[in-house]
């Protein structure tokens, strides 16, 4: 029986150029041995998530997420809760494409990204689980909290389509003067932090906002988050830390940073009059308090990475 694949694509991603390459993408997957069909996401909430869950329940062997980080996150949320999960392929067509960058997937050529899938090189990937009394969501690249981490979902989608990465830079310049520390309590494996912080990150890859130096020792499948808590809210000090990030990742030893590995992380806002929105893979993921757990090697994903240092599936 031929393997079945479903391409779930966002027709507005890649400045709306993805649609023009869809036939070529389907042809690559067909030649690779998949009976392939496509689904265009709609403005309806959770369109990609629901379609991914539907085809997984029907026994499809492969789900391909074609779009930006938001589309990929929705697909992850469709298949991660299931007992039987299909393999995942990625065709990046967004603005930052952090996850694809970490997997070595071509970000400038949709057809070449499809060919990565047909090479059959699967790696086991960790998946993050975020939950509180109201929600349970999954993520595969980053979870974060703090004013500046709201950047990715504060930029309107139409501006991202037209102006791409420039839209993020403009929004960052607007938000940086407004950055204020928050009173938070965080617990993690072997420790806790209670006090002021401007932001926290739980990274699962080495690419955050297009920068690969933020979490230089991140692993795709070690069962741990790489945790960063930025204790300062001073704008000049944040810029100093960013300079250290760009200068070889020297921020990891700075006293204004807590940097460590952890499988579990819980965060709460100490000021009950304020809310701390949570960013999951660049999308709004609810508000704190929130508990995070790393699900070790939860999904099998096609990548363009060399066999080492990541362990490939048989």
Automatic annotation (TrEMBL):
Residues 1-134 form the DAGKc domain. It is an enzyme of class 2 (transferase). InterPro entries: ATP-NAD_kinase_N, Diacylglycerol/lipid_kinase, Diacylglycerol_kinase_cat_dom, Lipid_Phosphate_FormReg, NAD/diacylglycerol_kinase_sf, YegS/DAGK_C. Signal peptide: none annotated. Its cofactor is Mg(2+). NCBIfam families: PRK13055.1, PRK13337.1, YegS/Rv2252/BmrU family lipid kinase. PANTHER family: LIPID KINASE YEGS, SPHINGOSINE KINASE. Keywords: ATP-binding, Kinase, Lipid biosynthesis, Lipid metabolism, Magnesium, Metal-binding, Nucleotide-binding, Phospholipid biosynthesis, Phospholipid metabolism, Transferase. Belongs to the diacylglycerol/lipid kinase family. Its EC number is 2.7.1.107. One of its GO terms (molecular function) is ATP-dependent diacylglycerol kinase activity. The keyword Zinc-finger does not apply. The keyword Lipid metabolism applies. This is Diacylglycerol kinase.
């Amino acid at each position: 029986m031929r393997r079945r694949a479903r391409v779930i694509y966002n027709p507005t991603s890649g400045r709306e150029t993805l649609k023009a390459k869809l036939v070529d993408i389907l042809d690559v997957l067909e030649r690779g041995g998949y009976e392939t069909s496509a689904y265009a996401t709609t403005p309806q909430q959770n369109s990609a998530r629901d379609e991914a869950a539907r085809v997984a329940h029907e026994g499809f062997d492969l789900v391909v997420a074609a779009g930006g980080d938001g589309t990929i996150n929705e697909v992850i949320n469709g298949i991660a809760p299931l007992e039987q999960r299909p393999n995942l392929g990625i065709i990046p067509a967004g603005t930052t494409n952090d996850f694809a960058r970490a997997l070595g997937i071509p970000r400038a050529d949709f057809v070449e990204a499809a060919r990565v899938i047909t090479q059959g090189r699967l790696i086991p990937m960790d998946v993050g689980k975020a939950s509180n009394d109201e929600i349970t969501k999954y993520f595969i690249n980053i979870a974060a909290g703090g004013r500046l981490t709201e950047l990715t979902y504060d930029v309107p989608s139409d501006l991202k389509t037209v102006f791409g990465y420039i839209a993020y830079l403009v929004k960052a310049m607007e938000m940086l003067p407004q950055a204020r520390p928050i009173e938070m309590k965080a617990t993690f494996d072997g420790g806790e932090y209670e006090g002021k912080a401007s932001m926290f990150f739980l990274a699962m890859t080495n690419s955050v906002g297009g920068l690969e130096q933020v979490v230089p020792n991140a692993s795709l499948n070690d069962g741990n988050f790489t945790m960063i808590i930025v204790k300062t809210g001073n704008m000049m000090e944040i810029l100093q830390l960013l300079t250290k990030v760009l200068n070889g990742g020297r921020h990891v030893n700075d006293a204004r940073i807590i940097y460590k590995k952890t499988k579990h992380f819980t965060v709460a806002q100490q000021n009950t009059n304020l809310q701390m929105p949570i960013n999951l893979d660049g999308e709004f993921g609810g508000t704190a308090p929130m508990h995070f757990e790393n699900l070790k090697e939860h999904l099998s994903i096609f990548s363009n990475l060399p066999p080492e240092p990541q362990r490939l599936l048989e």
